[in-house]
Amino acid sequence: MRFMMIVKATTDSEAGAMPSQELIDAMQKYNEELVKAGVLLAADGLQPSSNAIRISYPEAGGKPKVVDGPFTEAKELIAGYTLIEVKSREEAMEWALRMPDPHGFGQGEIELRQVFDVEDLMEDPETLAKEAALRKQVEQQRKA
Amino acid sequence: MSRTVAYRTIDAIWRMESPKLIAGLTRMVRDVGLAEDLAQDALVIALERWPESSIPNNPGAWLMTTAKRRAIDLLRRNKVGGRKYEELARHTSLYTEADIDGAIDGEIGDDLLRLIFLTCHPVLSPEAHVALTLRLLCGLTTDEIARSYLVAEATIAQRIVRAKRTLNAKGVPFEMPEGEALKERLSAVLEVIYLMFNEGYSATSGAHWIRPILCQEALRLGRVLAEITQDEPEVHGLVALMEIQSSRLKTRVGADGEPILLKDQNRSLWDRLLIRRGLAALERCRRFGRPPGPYALQAAIAACHAEAASVAETNWVRIAALYEALSRISYSPIVELNRAVAVSMAFGPAFGLQIVDALHNEPSLYGYHLLPSVRGDLLMKLERYEEALVEFERAAGMTRNERERALLIDRVTECEQKVKPSRE
């Protein structure tokens, strides 16, 4: 199963300030660990929102509204992501916990999100068994 | 943290750390069975303590230190000869915290590699290779291995016990092969990984075509191997092959579980990320500047398909040439059969049929359903429907895969419909 570790933006990352050498080294080491465990799929850092645009649809069926960055609410922006493939949710959490504090200064925040994958649900024997049981139950309820 | 959550977290940590633990401990005690027991002992202690206290900051190092203490106790108690104890004493600084911190550089990487060479050692049978590798290097439980191979748990358990006993009885050393031996042993390792992948990719029998856990584990192990071996282009070739083949996992089976052939797959659903990773691995392999080995060639073929927007836009001439190169370095009738398909796509079905007909008396293809299946397909393209019908019927009688049989019977019907009007 795939998980995305999303690093949230901070006032520093939005200002385009480079992280300290210490943090860069720690991040590099962490990424190497991911690679050497065979779990890293992709990772990228994003530029500050100052050269971003935001497209919204304020009216249903209406024309898109385009707003230029920067956007103010740093905590709701993202500064980068790391996509991993792991065996379980717990493993993903372990990796997320091992990621260095991405910004320091008390603003660091990592969000862990699972990527939708229908196949995981379809092929997992436990899920299949649960689904079969559920179907049976539904059928019995219908008959009753 | 609730107990259940703690147990599940410990389980995840165990799966992440156990290969490194077992590899390091095997170097210490020179007995892979004992090393696994010691690692398990450390796990039991963790299961007792961690839910009470909390999970240590560096759980891998904690497990290693605990297991190492157990090892020293055990060796002292059993007064295992001076030799083992001396060896142990020399390694008391085994893995510092910084080493074990998830990274597998240097020593730990070498130990992991030694462990792979051990689980894929030629004294063991192919079944034992796979079971032992999944167990010790992928951290799968016996039950999980049994489920993915559709055999009883007891069978796998016994296979693993026997394999460990054989390694001990034959005195197989925990070492890094060198020179020519390294090449040979490494190709054996790659074979085990690819076998594991293929077992997952296309199950030979039963209703389910894909057993994803085996594909995932093989791919993950391949990726790890690509990082801990150096100067070995074929490792990258194998990883490239598995990445690209995995990109099609979701499109190989229809909603009702029926197989979907490459030509009929919805290419927009292929996993572009895995394709990109596969192409990058292939590029890494090419940069060695050595003549491509069998995995690199197969990966290059898979890459041709991955890069083509449709069957018609596929570079079949290049694929036919790659198959020819593959046939030259590792001839097999199966490769020839694939070459026949590529040649027919590149130069027309009549040329493909010539290659297939040359395989007619090939004893190793006797009973192999793809031979009549491919022949039937080429005959159909040449509008020789009556002959094609016979071939599809033969193929349907040979396959062990129910879904595949259904597909072949459809083609028989298709031929029948073509034959009928010409008779009327």
Automatic annotation (TrEMBL), chain A:
Protein name, UniProt field: YciI family protein
Annotated YCII-related domain residues: 1-117
Protein family: Belongs to the YciI family.
UniProt xrefs under Gene3D superfamilies: Dimeric alpha+beta barrel
Pfam families documented for this protein: YCII
InterPro entries recorded: Dimeric_a/b-barrel, YCII
Organism in which the protein naturally occurs: Paenibacillus paeoniae
UniProtKB/TrEMBL annotation, chain B:
Domain RNA polymerase sigma-70 region: 16-79
Keywords: Coiled coil
One Gene Ontology MF term: sigma factor activity
Coiled-coil parts of chain: 375-402
Ranges where the DUF6596 domain occurs: 185-285
RNA polymerase sigma factor 70 region 4 type domain boundaries: 115-167
GO biological process entries: DNA-templated transcription initiation
One Pfam family of this chain: DUF6596
PANTHER family named among the record's database cross-references: BLL0085 PROTEIN, BLL6612 PROTEIN-RELATED
Record-given protein name: RNA polymerase sigma factor
Organism: Paenibacillus paeoniae
